[in-house]
Design goal:
240 residues, alpha+beta, five-stranded mixed beta sheet
Length: 240
Amino acid sequence: MGDEKNIHHGHRMRMKHAMIENGIDGLNDHQILEIMLFYAVPKIDTNPIAHRLVERFGSLRNVLEADFDELREVSGIGDNAASLIKFSQMLAGRYVCASSFEDDTMKFTDTDSLRRYYEGVFLGTTVEQVRGMLVDDDLNMVKEKLLIEGSISKVQISTRVFTDFVIKNNCNRLVIAHNHPRGVCLPSKEDVITTKKLFDILKMLDISIVDHIIVGQTGSFSLRASDRCGNIWPIDKRLR
C-alpha cells in the first residue's frame, strides 16, 4: 500500500509540474480532468475516473456542463469532486465575464464587450434564458438579472417583465440577452420580429434598448451590430 501511495504521489507531482511548465494545450480532456481531480480525490489514481467522465459525457466541455447529480452517478465522483467540477465551470464563466472589461470597472464600450460578457454569463447554461442588464448614461452596469427562463417569443409577458425591471431599478437603458443552448447564435426570424416589437413598445415608455445579444454553443451575436433589425439602431459596434 505504501509503494502504491508513493507511485501515485510521484505521478501527481510530475503531472502538476508539467502543467505548470507547459500549460494544458498539450493535454487531452481526460488528462485535464485527471489533474483537476487530484484536488478532490486524494491518494488514489484519478486517471480511470477521468476516463469514465469523458466516456459518459463525451468531452471536457460536456463534463463541465453536466448537472451535479449526473456527475455523482459516475463511479469515483463524490460530492467533493462534483462540487469542484461545477466550481471550475462557474469560475471559467466569471473569468470570461471579467475579461470583457479593460479594468475592474463594469463599463461597456461596444457590442463586442457585451458579447464577451454574455458568453461568460451563459457558459454552461443548458436551458434557454432571457436576461436583462441596465446601464447608465456612461454605459456602466447598474444591474444584471435573469428575467425569463424559456422563450422570448411571448412579447406581452416580456414587456411587463422588462418594464418592472427598469422601474424597480430607476434606470431606462436596457440590454437584452438570451441564449440558444443547443444551437447557433444567429437570430431566428422570431428573434428579430420580437426585438423590433419590444423596441417600439418600450420606446413609448421611454425605455431604450441598447442591444440584444444572442449566445449560442460556439459564439455570440449582436443584433445592434448587424442589419437584421432594419434601422432601429445605427449599424455600429459603438454604444451610445
